[in-house]
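tokens incoming
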């Protein structure tokens, strides 16, 4: 069974490991914790519970209550078997809680044989602060790897295309396509949802076997999808080239932000975008906020005074929206063909 070995240098890191583990759990999962007294099991439980909107203060050692039920975003059961052994386990009816919400069991060694579908977390004490935490039965490492590759593919392919297009177009226009402060704002807004890509869901077939970095494959991917990005930048210029500087820069800001945001929904999966798991709500919500700010900022006084934006017309915004959707679906078609030929 694949193991994920982590080193915690103190309670804060143990809590964060619990948070990350909690973000990967789904309704019905059971987490079995093994370790000596004082190894940090309850701290990890607090981190796991926080992923389900349960305050840290609500999680305490359940040694005296044995089973503590918490109402978070889904039911959460904290079971501590420290004081129970043998026949006593049959009296508390643990099986009644298995499969209902999230169930975390401390001192799981009291259970004897652990079912294969349980997620097992083992604590090894290294010194007064450090703990080795070994996680078995969950594909966290493969999910982290997959989401890291997603981040690289989204950012580098779109940035490569934009860099090439902006460089060429700078020679065609009498002014830069975007001012430095405008480019910084694009990067800031589009990095917000990408910063959360680590929480994204992963297609089951992505975790079936170990992965490694393939520099050739990544390079080919960046080139193919970077070219698509650059082509649509040139299409944008051909449509709006006869407008004045401020309007072109404003529209380019909106178009660049939109395309870099929506491309996340295409390149996050090898499948057709509607045939995969939807992103978590935190990503969807952040994308919604960023898209709202993208359209709002050019309409505000701050957008005009700081970023030199002007208010675009409805027709121009509609053209940009349609062009962005065309860019998205072009990526989808090329993506399906690309993966069918290379995998």
């Amino acid at each position: 069974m694949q193991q994920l070995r982590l080193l915690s240098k103190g309670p804060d890191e143990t809590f964060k490991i619990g948070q990350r583990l909690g973000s990967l759990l789904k309704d019905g999962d059971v987490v079995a914790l093994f370790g000596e007294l004082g190894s940090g099991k309850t701290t990890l439980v607090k981190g796991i519970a926080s992923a389900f909107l349960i305050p840290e203060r609500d999680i305490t050692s359940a040694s005296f209550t044995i089973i503590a039920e918490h109402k978070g975003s889904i039911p959460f059961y904290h079971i501590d078997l420290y004081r129970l052994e043998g026949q006593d386990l049959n009296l508390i009816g643990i099986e009644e809680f298995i499969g209902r919400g999230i169930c975390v069991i401390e001192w799981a060694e009291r259970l004897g044989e652990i079912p294969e579908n349980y997620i097992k977390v083992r604590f090894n004490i290294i010194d007064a602060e450090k703990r080795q935490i070994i996680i078995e039965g969950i594909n966290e490492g493969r999910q982290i790897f997959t989401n890291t590759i997603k981040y690289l593919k989204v950012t580098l392919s779109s940035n490569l295309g934009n860099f090439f297009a902006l460089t060429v177009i700078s020679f065609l226009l009498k002014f830069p396509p975007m001012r430095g402060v405008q480019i910084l704002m694009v990067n800031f807004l589009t990095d917000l949802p990408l910063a959360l890509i680590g929480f994204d869901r992963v297609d089951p077939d992505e975790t079936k076997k170990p992965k490694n970095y393939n520099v050739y494959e990544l390079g080919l991917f960046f080139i193919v999808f970077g070219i698509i990005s650059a082509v649509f930048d040139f299409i944008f210029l051909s449509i709006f080239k006869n407008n004045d500087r401020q309007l072109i820069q404003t529209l380019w800001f909106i178009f660049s932000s939109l395309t870099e945001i929506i491309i996340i929904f295409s390149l996050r999966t090898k499948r057709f975008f509607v045939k995969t798991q939807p992103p978590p709500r935190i990503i969807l919500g952040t994308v919604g906020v960023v898209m709202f700010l993208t359209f709002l900022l050019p309409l505000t006084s701050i957008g005009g005074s700081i970023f030199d934006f002007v208010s675009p017309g409805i027709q121009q915004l509609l053209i940009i929206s349609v062009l962005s959707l065309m860019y998205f679906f072009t990526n989808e078609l090329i993506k399906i063909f690309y993966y069918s030929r290379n995998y």
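note: The longest helix spans residues 140-172.
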